[in-house]
């Protein structure tokens, strides 16, 4: 992945071309993107500003995965990658955590034989 990104608006915290050379790449389930980045990626500029990195999303055609490419200085790339992996894991597990609570609530609402 030695190619430079196609994006024209490189954030000022990313020093071109040095920080654009060896990006960190992680793959995330496409269905988690809206939860992580907001509708239409509205939170991406904020995440880039706070993390001091540039993000680029590439949808993989052959699967339900999206590559998140992180550009920036070495330490900022690693920190942003860890944060994005943690966010993806949290959002992935969120429905699983909610299911036992939902099942308990549904059981509590079940009507006893005397109420039918």
TrEMBL record:
Domain of life per record: Eukaryota
Keywords: Cytoplasm, Developmental protein, RNA-binding
A biological-process GO annotation: regulation of gene expression
CDD domains the record matches: FILIA_N_like
GO MF term (any one): mRNA binding
Domain KH-like RNA-binding: from-to ranges: 11-94
GO cellular component: cytoplasm
Cellular compartments annotated: Cytoplasm
PANTHER family named among the record's database cross-references: DEVELOPMENT PLURPOTENCY-ASSOCIATED PROTEIN 1/5 FAMILY MEMBER (PTHR31368), DEVELOPMENTAL PLURIPOTENCY-ASSOCIATED 5 PROTEIN (PTHR31368:SF4)
Described purpose of this protein according to its UniProt entry: Involved in the maintenance of embryonic stem (ES) cell pluripotency. Dispensable for self-renewal of pluripotent ES cells and establishment of germ cells. Associates with specific target mRNAs.
Protein family (similarity comment): Belongs to the KHDC1 family.
Protein name according to UniProt: Embryonal stem cell-specific gene 1 protein
Organism: Callorhinus ursinus (Northern fur seal)
């Amino acid at each position: 992945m030695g190619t430079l990104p196609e994006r024209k608006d490189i954030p000022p915290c990313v020093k071109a071309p040095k920080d654009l050379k060896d990006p960190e790449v992680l793959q995330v389930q496409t269905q988690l993107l809206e939860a992580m980045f907001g509708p239409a990626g509205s939170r991406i500029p904020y995440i880039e500003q706070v993390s001091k990195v540039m993000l680029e999303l590439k949808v993989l055609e052959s699967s339900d995965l999206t590559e998140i490419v992180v550009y920036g200085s070495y330490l900022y790339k690693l920190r942003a990658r860890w944060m994005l992996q943690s966010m993806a894991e949290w959002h992935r597990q969120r429905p699983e955590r909610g299911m036992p609570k939902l099942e308990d609530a549904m059981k509590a609402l079940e009507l006893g034989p005397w109420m039918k």
